[in-house]
Amino acid sequence: MSSRVCALSDLEIDEPKRFVVDDVAVALVRTEEGVFAISDTCSHANVPLSQGEVEDCRIECWLHGSMFDLRTGEPSGLPATKPVPVYPVTLDGDDVLVSVDVALNEAS
């Protein structure tokens, strides 16, 4: 089930924001490609990704520099080696809806 998280107008391009959706911390990022929801916790350390910088549809962990693809959650730089969950985002007018029931990159 999708939950309304914020208005699209609340999100600035390439500026991550932290939200808690059904007890799951997510970083929402609006890019030129769309809006993405990714786990707000780096898979290498317990560090909030929402405090990192966004570039080329990737978010950087501010502590150790690992980069994660916003579309897939895959890391593209050490020290992280495991992906982080990414969640489906739906736009309904100006409403941003996120579902954390099942991650898009979760193995079935």
From TrEMBL:
Boundaries of every Rieske domain copy: 3-98
Database matches in CDD domains: Rieske_RO_ferredoxin
InterPro entries found in the cross-reference section: Rieske_2Fe-2S, Rieske_2Fe-2S_sf
PROSITE patterns: RIESKE
Keyword field: 2Fe-2S, Iron, Iron-sulfur, Metal-binding
Pfam short name (any one): Rieske
Superkingdom: Bacteria
PANTHER family: 3-PHENYLPROPIONATE_CINNAMIC ACID DIOXYGENASE FERREDOXIN SUBUNIT, FERREDOXIN-RELATED
Name this polypeptide is given: Non-heme iron oxygenase ferredoxin subunit
Organism: Motilibacter deserti
Higher taxonomy: Bacteria, Bacillati, Actinomycetota, Actinomycetes, Motilibacterales
